[in-house]
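Entry under discussion copied across for reference:
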Amino acid sequence: MPEITTNRRLDQPLLGRARFEIDPDWFARLSERIARFLGTGRFLAVQTVVVAVWIALNLVAWSGRWDPYPFILLNLAFSTQAAYAAPLILLAQNRQDDRDRVSLEEDRARAERTKADTEYLARELAALRIALGEVATRDYLRGELDKLCDRLGGDQTPVATDRVKTAGVSRRRGGG
């Protein structure tokens, strides 16, 4: 049996050969455009004018009637239009459903992140409130100093207590 010899290598792609490549979404995008056009008032107006002219020409014309009174050809055209329009509209709706599904998933993920951030901030705020509850305030310190003064000997006012009281009075009066 003779051996077939070729000069091409099987481990390398063919070069210089034009390949016919089709965008897989091309037909889907076309169907969306058609579905969008079918749902416009412009389409309805154009279709109404075409039907009116069709009927008028076939009723009034003495010669050249291509579709006499029952308008079977016109009915066939409408049936064909409906047969193609319905699947195109369904295809466009399916693509829109896919886009809506992706958008919904992104919204859910964003909502989960927002919820987690909100819960984190709520925990941080609660921790700050607890920490602030343990901080000694000016009034608390004043009260403790007054108790200490009473224990040490009622009449004696320590220098620190005078400073605290005078600072509080001067602040209330608008001083520094």
